[in-house]
Amino acid sequence: LNKGDRLNLWPEYTVGASADLTFQLGGGLQGRVSASANHTSEQSQRTIVGGTQLVGLGDDLTFAQASFSIEGRDHWTATLFADNLRDERGTPLGDVFGVLDWSTRVRPRTIGLQLEYRF
């Protein structure tokens, strides 16, 4: 690393925001709506191979998530969720050898239903 270089895997900045609202639905049910977004500036990874410095650069990434949950009195919860709402396709960390297929990948937009029961 040269003087003033950012450390490996440390973005210049990250920003995040979230909101969570809980409310009564009646009949002993409770609802919850949650949303969040996070932005991370590019990250770099430097390594030296045979006296040559190699650099892998990632992308600026912004992820958003949202969910709606219903919680019952008898220890169960049903949650409808969506992760990576923007369907971000960038790479958080590029490969230092420049091989695109070796770059880190992010999970694509994922929508699902999660059912929980707590003992």
Description of the molecule:
The chain has 119 residues and is mainly beta. The chain has no helices and seven strands. It has a five-stranded antiparallel beta sheet, with no helix packed on it. It is elongated and about 70 Å long. 5% of the residues are buried. The model has no long low-confidence stretch (mean pLDDT 91).
Mean pLDDT: 91
Radius of gyration: 20 Å
Percent of residues in helical segments? Answer: under 10%
Q: Tell me, what's the shape?
A: elongated
Order of helices and strands: EEEEEEE
Largest sheet: 5 strands, antiparallel
Number of strands: 7
- Main sheet: which strands, in order across? 1-2-5-6-7
Helices, by number, come to 0
The structural class is mainly beta
Please mark out the parts with pLDDT under 50 across 5 or more consecutive residues, or reply none.
none
Layout of strands and helices, then pairs:
Layout: E1 14-26, E2 29-40, E3 44-49, E4 52-57, E5 61-71, E6 76-83, E7 110-117
Antiparallel strand pairs: 1-2, 2-5, 3-4, 5-6, 6-7
Question: What labels describe this entry?
Answer:
119 residues, two-stranded antiparallel sheet, 7 strands, elongated
In brief:
This protein has 119 residues and is mainly beta.
